[in-house]
What we know:
Elements: H1 7-12, H2 15-23, E1 27-33, E2 48-54, H3 59-62, H4 66-74, E3 77-83, H5 85-90, H6 96-104, E4 106-111, H7 122-146, H8 151-176, H9 183-189, H10 192-195, H11 198-211
Parallel strand pairs: 2-3
Antiparallel strand pairs: 1-2, 1-4
Helix pairs in contact: 7-8, 7-11
Amino acid sequence: xxxxxxxxxxxxxxxxxxxxxxxxxxxxxxxxxxxxxxxxxxxxxxxxxxxxxxxxxxxxxxxxxxxxxxxxxxxxxxxxxxxxxxxxxxxxxxxxxxxxxxxxxxxxxxxxxxxxxxxxxxxxxxxxxxxxxxxxxxxxxxxxxxxxxxxxxxxxxxxxxxxxxxxxxxxxxxxxxxxxxxxxxxxxxxxxxxxxxxxxxxxxxxxxxxxxxxx
Length: 215
């Protein structure tokens, strides 16, 4: 297995040209995003995620990706989402948190930079963050009750913090108007994540987000 270890290797590899030759003029953008661009990512342990904006994402067009998936897997690449420009525009208020991440933490392999300059509608982002946090709390309490105290519980809580960080980036944006540069910025703004029981900490953050509705 050949593993491309950093963004520069990917951008200089055969993949930009391979993707362009596969999708042709239909390709608007192919870009890296998600966990692979977050701190702590290691290409030795996890794959790169490449998503696409295509003028046409019909099944006939998507089938062209089949010829690349085996090779992509060998080189530690997985294909993610396949948007059209119209779908993106129509769903800006449906997935504001996901698009906030793509707009601020993505790297184009070919084509345009996705969602450049996108700023989510505050009310929609607040609602999604609240919904995600409340759902997270439901599962966190369940895990807390069903996990034995000690190392197992500590591990579960540490994993839970990793899982909720993308949502906390959205909360940070709601409070400051800026996208965090690092996890550390999030932890500095919400020190209770490490200084309190995680359930109590998230409950407090949910209350903050809930109170934003009145502003």
